[in-house]
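Lab meeting notes turned into a lecture example. A postdoc, R.K., suggested we walk through two folding results consecutively so the class can see how the record format repeats. The first protein's sequence and structure tokens come next.
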Amino acid sequence: MLNAVGDEGVPVREIAEAIGRQLNVPARSLPAAEYEGMLVHLLGTDMPASSTITQELLGWKPTHAGLIEDIEQGHYFM
């Protein structure tokens, strides 16, 4: 499987905090017991993605902003 990710190991909390800054809403932890469904399992699972094999196999190098920097640019929140 090939992954085309520029960042590796970005914690969900950092993603939530970046989105919260754009929306002027503080990010905070919530107990999983208050929620049901796939989202709890998805966000509570460590699923690191790496593009090392993709880069080596295809000679590709990420050139765009990383995930947090991309969120911070604000174009998702217009």
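The second example is placed directly after the first for contrast:
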Amino acid sequence: MRWAIGIILFVVVFAWFTAPNPMDTGSASDPFVGRWLVNGVDPFGVEYSGSLSITSSGEQYALEWIVTGALVSGTAERAGDELYAEWRRAAGDTVIAGTAEYRIDDAGTLLGTIRVPGTSENGRESGEPAG
């Protein structure tokens, strides 16, 4: 039965990456908003890749990651040129939560620092606009 769930998850993720991107990939007034293709290393040293969708409503942001082996969600607020996020990921009965800080460099790359309380290392994430 687990193989069936794995196949379904693969199909969903494959469809997500190959579907047209209806979301705006950023604007001059808010370059964070859009869908990003991300790669990173979490604070535990595990590499991952996937996508990050960022939407905004007023001053609040919603973040949704579909990354290798996980669905992660979070909220964020913008302060100047940085986005400060809180996120959580459910893995079975375990919930992992943390914070992230994002900025966009001069080349348009999304750069993030990922933190999990109780770990001594920070994770790193980078992304390119999908679209």
